[in-house]
Amino acid sequence: MPRIEVDANRCKACYLCVNACPKKCLGKSETISKKGYFPAEMKHPENCIGCTMCYMMCPDIAITVIKD
Amino acid sequence: MTQKTLRKGNEALAEGAIRAGARFFAGYPITPQNEVPEFMSAYMADAGGAFVQAESEIAAINMVYGAASTGTRSMTSSSSPGVSLKQEGITYLASADLPCLIVNVMRGGPGLGSIGGAQGDYFQATRGGGNGDYHVIVLAPNSVEELGNFPKLGFELAEKYRMPCMILADGILGQMMESMAFNFDPIDPNKLGKFDWAVDIEKNGRPKRKVFSYKGDNLIADVTERAKRYGLIEKTEARFEERNTEDCDVLLVAYGLSSRACLEAVNHAKEAGIKVGLFRPITLWPFPSKRLLELAGKVKAIVAVEQSLGQMVQDVKLAVGDKTPVYLKAYPAGGQPEGAAILQAAQSALNGKTEGLFDLQRHAEGFTYECKRDLSLGVQGDRKGGK
Amino acid sequence: MTILAQRPKSMTDKPMHYCPGCGHGIVHRLMGEAFDELKIGDRVIGVAPVGCAVFADDYFACDMVQGAHGRGPAIATGIKRSKPNAIVFSYQGDGDLASIGMAEIVHAAVRSENITVIFINNAIYGMTGGQMAPTTLVGQVATTAPKGRDPKLQGWPINMCEMLAQITGAKYLERVAVDTPQHVMAAKKAIKKAFENQVKGVGFSMVEVISQCPTNWHANVEQALEFVRTKMMPQYPLGVFKDEGAN
Questions:
Q1: Do B225 and B244 have their domain in common?
Q2: Which of A10, A16, A52 sits opposite C221 (nearest CB)?
Q3: Band of residue B387 on the pLDDT scale cut at 50, 70, 90
Q4: For chain A, what is the domain count?
Q5: Residue A40: which domain range?
Q6: Is there a single domain that holds both residue B196 and residue B298?
Q7: Chain C residues whose C-beta sits inside 8 Å of any chain A C-beta
Q8: Do B255 and B135 have their domain in common?
Q9: CB-based contacts of C210, cutoff 8 Å, min separation 6
Q10: CA-CA distance, C192 to C27, in Å (whole number)?
Q11: In this prediction, does ipTM exceed 0.90?
Q12: pLDDT by residue (tens digit) across C199-215?
């Protein structure tokens, strides 16, 4: 079962990952991060197919993609 | 040690550098030092090093920055206008604490100037033509033998203190031929150890290294630390030569080939009835102020002799203070110093006369100058011209 | 548990300072992935420019040299000629490479220096606040072209890959973008190839990356990507401009 971890402290809320996800899994968090951003957040983990497109687009290497 | 041979200055320099372990040279053609890159292009590869004719003097000094960052003994050579171009690279080398050798075979300036020898780059070399608080060690040879042997000293000082070293020669020294010998055995880089700061590909698990010039918030600490090295160098690395200073009334101060003309004056002083000595700085930075001040206390007058409008004379005045009057025998833009004229200047200095001595404001006595715009020639604001 | 994607070992874990959505971070990561996959991480020595990427020397795990504006290809030449077994890269922006560094990049290509150049083209000067670059588009507003770039006064933008392709010593030139996952995958391939070329000793290789600069384009990330697609790509078409493999 693939899943991702978003490091909220590295995320700068550019949302390139949100737009890139083919399954529309990601969205905007409601919680402000230490850096003052509303980081990207996994909203529908059940739909993740582990394609790693979110990781590919992230300029801050804030995403790790894992397969359990 | 080698036997004495008849060598051209520039070639002795190039051979001396390879002999001293130089294994990277980048340069660009400019008169009067072209024999240096030409020699390097012929012999550097056989010595196991690399030669690049760079696209400009700017590119060349930056290639030296790259090569030096690997710990390789690296050098470039050029002449006055080309050294002007290198100033950015030199300040970067100084800020990144990179040892290297930079040779300036001086020619007449300012600007494109002339191709003859001169000593007009003393300020550029010792006051830093580049930005910020930094120094380079400056060595001033006065013979082909020194020119050939100074690369060894230059690399040693540069590496000991992690900073650039400049050899300040001039066009005549570079072009002339003299008998010389190398006074050191060839240095094999395969027998030299590595530096613990150099970028490298054999890491053996060590942490990464950075060579860099932008210090940001750490700049104050960075410059303050480097200043300690500069202070140590000023105290311990000054080099000079003296002739006839035990008993003289007038002390000549000169470096490079000007000092050779001064020797003429020293040797003929007796005939003129005066006692003349010579103090020759070999390091221009650090300037040998301590010894010069000692000597100043024993003489009646000091005459700085240089092929410029008066640059080294400022360091003489700084060293001597008001201990003894300091005068200038100037040969602006590289006129040829000769013993008889220098002797006459020494006599003037001793007798309170001005003949043969140079003073900028006295030079302008009775001179007026004003460049004016002339409406009859047209109107400057007319950018189009014609009717 | 398997990791499908994570920070390459050839990157440090220092958070990058680039603006949100900027292409620099993506390209840095692709280079790190290439070093890991080619197993050359230990041999890499990189040259960081002056510009937004002046701090790139903190983000790669290899030994790094940060040098003067535009002089990267010359610095890389000095490193490569002294350590021929090092894999040397020069990472440069468009002001660094195509303005002040124009002589250095051209002559590194002329000499066919066996180095890899990564050229980030965002058509603007980023670090200094948005001045016109040699690659700024006609009509594009910049702080030193407040009415937009006027060809009569400021000429036309320069296409570096096309220009360098005229040089015999330039062996591999490709232009890529990082605005979509597909383009990012193609960019990765190009970057990996440019480094493989150096391993094989092919000669001068450069990848030009069209990058979004939301901050200095005065756009949000979506608008910036739109600018890449509708304005940058017509001027700077993606593709291979030279590909001469190992002799």
A1: no
A2: A16
A3: low
A4: 1
A5: 2-67
A6: no
A7: 1-7, 11, 15-16, 18-26, 29, 180-181, 184-185, 214, 221-222
A8: no
A9: C23, C121, C122, C175, C176, C177, C178, C179, C228, C232, C233, C236, C238
A10: 11
A11: yes
A12: 999 999 999 999 999 99
